[in-house]
Design a protein that fits this description.
Shape: globular
Distance between the termini: 50 Å
CATH topology: Rossmann fold
Strand content: 15-25%
Order of helices and strands: HEHEHEEHEHHEHHHEE
Radius of gyration: 18 Å
Number of helices: 9
CATH superfamily: Vaccinia Virus protein VP39
Number of strands: 8
CATH architecture: 3-Layer(aba) Sandwich
Helix content: 25-40%
Length: about 260
């Protein structure tokens, strides 16, 4: 049976909806809401830290993160090589301090105070060269914000990689730290974790075998049809601590 094709819902007039392919996350797809909010939580955290700055959002995809950053930043450039994503973002998100450029992340260069590169370094063949490129763009005192999923919580236990065909390399915490520290003088890494109702749901699965219970009751689809669209960015939290248990790593890198 063919996999269902999910398109964005309720897009503004003249804005072509994007299809969910697994290469990038999308808003306006109820079935994708968990992953969208997981990404959004990090964008919101960064948005509070780039107020008044010139920001480059590399591999910006659909554009929702660039738009969020532009709420506080002095200016934002969203960069993505995909023609459909670029056209969608250009039409969907319009602000005086926001523009979108279709280009490769290792080619586009413009002086800035912050580079944002979320959930993409795992797609890159030469991540070191990309990080060096970002470091060269930053003004004195600038920061690069780089995130990636934790292979220990993304892949099956004991596997070196998940089944995501778009990922070249998935990282453990020590591997990701070593990569960033090889190209930046100062690196601080946080983990993204479940919070609020997602934490309660995780504990219910781990302690009460909730996934077995709703399967026996025959309510799995009805439960997740309600639960997934209700997830919010506040159901995730960033903190230091046991990074091996994190969902994603977020590195704040300074030359």
């Amino acid at each position: 049976m063919a996999e269902p094709i999910y398109l964005q819902e309720n897009q503004p007039d003249g804005v072509p909806p994007l299809a969910l392919t697994g290469e990038r996350t999308l808003p306006d797809v109820p079935e994708e809401n968990y992953w969208y909010r997981r990404h959004l939580a990090v964008y919101e955290w960064i948005g509070a830290r780039v107020r008044g700055q010139r920001v480059i959002d590399m591999a910006c995809g659909e554009g929702y993160g660039s738009d969020l950053l532009a709420r506080t930043a002095a200016s934002v450039v969203g960069v993505d090589a995909n023609p459909e994503a670029h056209e969608h973002a250009r039409l969907r998100y319009v602000r005086d301090n926001l523009r979108f450029e279709r280009d490769l992340v290792d080619h586009f260069a413009e002086p800035c105070d912050a580079v944002v590169f979320l959930q993409t370094i795992e797609h890159v063949e030469d991540p070191g060269a990309v990080l060096d490129h970002f470091a060269g763009m930053l003004s004195p005192g600038g920061s690069a914000y780089v995130s990636t999923p934790n292979v220990l919580t993304l892949a099956p236990e004991g596997a070196e990689k998940s089944g995501n065909p778009w990922h070249v390399k998935e990282y453990r915490a020590d591997e990701f730290r070593a990569l960033c520290e090889a190209h930046f003088a100062r690196v601080h890494i946080l983990g993204l974790f479940h919070a609020r109702k997602l934490r309660a749901h995780q504990l219910a699965i781990e302690k009460l075998r909730w996934d077995d219970v709703h399967a026996r009751l025959g309510i799995t689809k009805r439960f997740y049809d309600r639960f997934t669209p209700a997830i919010a960015a506040e159901d995730f939290s960033l903190r230091s601590g046991d990074l091996d248990g994190a969902l994603d790593f977020i590195a704040v890198c300074r030359p």
